[in-house]
Design brief:
5 helices; disordered N terminus; single chain; mainly alpha
């Protein structure tokens, strides 16, 4: 193995040892850095020539223009996407409102026919108990469970009277008590 004498061969002297000059590590590092800088500069110049650009400033300007164009296209797409998502959100909200309105209207119609006395309270109770029908845009409103509602909340329904078929034809014809007492009894308050 050759002995290190601290002498660095100069590339310009054909690899011959030069006994006259010794280089420090700092000088060697500076020389290497200079060669690397020169190589980098040569590579950049070669790349610019391949791209058909003579100055780095032209390449920077072209790149900035490309980025600006790309950003403007991106913002157009983002704007359209945002508008589309806003319209979709509104459509979903409208469908939800339509479904709720259809369910409520159907419930009111069927509750009145079933003899519900307080529609609002019956609707809230059915909603809380999960007794409302669901809505399907193709099939309409599903069946409300008014029978179960009547079992759980009988006070929301009109009491069925056990009237006779002859409407009291064979009776005495006289209603007991005064008119106010009769109205209170009919309303279930007496």
């Amino acid at each position: 193995m050759p002995e290190d004498t601290g002498v660095v061969q100069n590339a310009n002297d054909g690899g011959q040892r030069s006994e006259g000059r010794t280089f420090t590590q700092v000088e060697v590092d500076a020389f290497v850095a200079e060669r690397a800088k020169h190589a980098k500069s040569a590579a950049i110049t070669e790349l610019l020539q391949e791209l058909g650009v003579s100055k780095p400033e032209e390449l920077k300007a072209s790149l900035a223009e490309y980025r600006k164009l790309k950003e403007s296209q991106k913002s157009d797409v983002e704007k359209l996407t945002q508008i589309a998502s806003e319209h979709e959100r509104r459509a979903i909200a409208a469908e939800s409102q339509i479904a709720a309105t259809e369910i409520k209207a159907d419930f009111v119609e069927k509750a009145v026919a079933a003899g519900v006395t307080d529609i609002r309270l019956a609707y809230l109770a059915a909603q809380a108990e999960g007794l409302l029908g669901s809505y399907d845009p193709d099939k309409g409103v599903g069946k409300h469970n008014l029978e179960e509602l009547k079992k759980r909340y009988p006070h929301l329904f009109r009491a069925t009277t056990g009237g006779s078929a002859d409407a009291g034809a064979g009776g005495s014809g006289k209603i007991g008590g005064d008119m106010n007492a009769w109205i209170r009894r009919a309303a279930g308050r007496a």
